[in-house]
Amino acid sequence: MAEISTYNYRIEPQDVDFTLRASASSIINYMLNVAGVDADKKGFGVERLQNKSCTWVLSRLGVEIIAQAEQYSPIELDTWVNEFNRLSSTRNFRMRLGDNLLAAGVSQWCMINMETRSVVDMSLLRETYEEAMVDTPSPIAAPARLRPTEPTTTTSRPVAYSDIDFNRHVNTLRYVDMVFDAIPLELIERNAGMRIDFNFIAEARYGETLTVGSSAEGNIYQFEISSDGKTLCRARVEFK
């Protein structure tokens, strides 16, 4: 069994929104970046997978933001893997400022073949993964399985160059931005904590047109992002 890994960062000007606090998108970005760094360090990063014509894709994500660090704040990010099977892997995160917990996350990943885009049996990484496993439970509840929602408002946008990542599909953070662009600004400004859940269902590729549907009930906002009637992503944001 391995130990929890900790990485040090600083909240930079590009990470904050108009409140001068780290945005939800940048908080998630730090978590996903540290996932890649730690996977490379442990021997199952993207570079090794690409040698086998495979890559990682994020299937579900749950994040609880307790407080948003201010610009230039030094932060520490803990990350560890505690679950692994043939079809998915669970990676966890804690973002801290000193002794104060700022945010926590649980992510679930699968491996796909880069040519066929189909899911790959992850047993080939079993030995490497077993050495990297940490016997510590996830810091928050696992990502929720989100049901279809009937949107009350919709917007559309094309998938453009700046949306595409190295997997040649829409980057996770673009989905986060689409969701928060549809939330009233005053809620984000006075935010005192939130829970965010994402389910990634299908890939969106360059040239497609995305429809972002949203609905709200009380302090809960739900989203369904689709293309030509095909659901790509579901999300839910609950403000505390």
Derived from helix and strand composition plus strand pairing, the structural class reads alpha+beta
How many strand units? 10
Q: Summarize model confidence as the mean pLDDT.
A: 93
Report the span from N to C terminus. Answer: 36 Å
One letter per element, helices H and strands E, the order comes to: EHHEEEEHEHHEEEE
CATH topology of the largest domain: Thiol Ester Dehydrase, Chain A
Annotated CATH architecture of the largest domain: Roll
Our estimate of the beta-strand percent is 35-45%
Residue windows where pLDDT falls under 50 for at least 5 positions: none
Query: In DSSP terms, counting alpha (H) and pi (I) runs of 4 or more, how many helices?
Result: 5
Provide the domain count.
2
- CATH homologous superfamily (4th level) name of the largest domain: Hotdog Thioesterase
Helix content: 10-25%
Overall form? globular
CATH class of the largest domain: Alpha Beta
Q: How is the main sheet built?
A: 10 strands, antiparallel
Q: Strand order within the widest sheet? A: 1-3-4-5-2-7-10-9-8-6
Q: What is the radius of gyration computed over CA atoms, rounded to a whole number of angstroms?
A: 18 Å
